[in-house]
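Treating backbone geometry as a discrete language has practical consequences that deserve illustration. Part of our work consisted of pairing the sequence of a single chain with a tokenised description of its backbone. We regard such an encoding as a compact summary of how the chain folds. The amino acid sequence and the backbone structure tokens for this protein are reproduced below.
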Amino acid sequence: MSEATVSRVLNGDPRVNPERVQKVRKAVEQLGYTKNRSAAALASGRTGLIAIVIEDDLSVFSDPFWATVTPSISRVLMENDLHSILLVTEASKVTGPLTRYLKSGEVDGAIFFQLHRDGLVKTLAKDGLPVVVVGAPHKESNLTFVDVDQRGGGKKATQQLFISGCARVATITGDVGTTAGHLRLDGYLDAHKEIGVEPEKNYIQHGDYSMESGALAMKKLLNLKNPPDGVFCANDLMAVGAIATLEAHGLHCPDDIKIVGFDDSLIARTSKPTLTSIQQDIAGLGENAAQLMLNLLNGESVEPIILPTQIVKRASC
């Protein structure tokens, strides 16, 4: 059997006769052969590397969200003989070090998180780099993306607080410069509009997904003349920070103020009290992002993916 045939089998060429494919794979298994990535890159023009770009700083790793979503991407990529490289950096500028790196041919594609602007990803996609965005685009576009029902989740969280008897519901937002943060806030407003209630302006406090920002925002809410009796926090980490502030002021959740989070991360199940939270499929986000990237690399057509959310009731509300 020729070297060319063996090479085509190892590179997944569908045109090879199935009987020959079986023989080559059997020989590979018996010989313990492993693919030489450098040689394969030279032959195929691909590096086998996918960049995971998070637009933020290293503090993002205090959020358990990242401990779930990034491994789920890497696992799917590795199952398909690809590897990932993690870049935590500013990604709003169309020009700069990140742009030069991604255009240099060092990676075969890029998966972006927490974008504040779409300019860079649109430029990269236009130039032919396979790009997937986790989170809905800021404006209507042909970008390939996967997201959860952020707005619907924010609405469900706020509705749960009303259902539980709250009359004055506040929110601690995430980063509203991202579509996720903005859409969760929209969901909070939708729930108010549905029952004909206008939330007080000061009931909307802005956080950045960190525990510290949740604690600080709750302190501001408690200092209001008419504090809320329920708070929707745009992630679980901020909710835990908010609960800590309550305790520090001699108040308790849910007796004095009820709280709902978002993510349904491990912290929601282990906090005291355990946290009612909006469950999003975090692993599914990563898996679908990786699969969309594989589809793009294979020249297949893709459609945006929106994953559902649901509320998980626990002791905090």
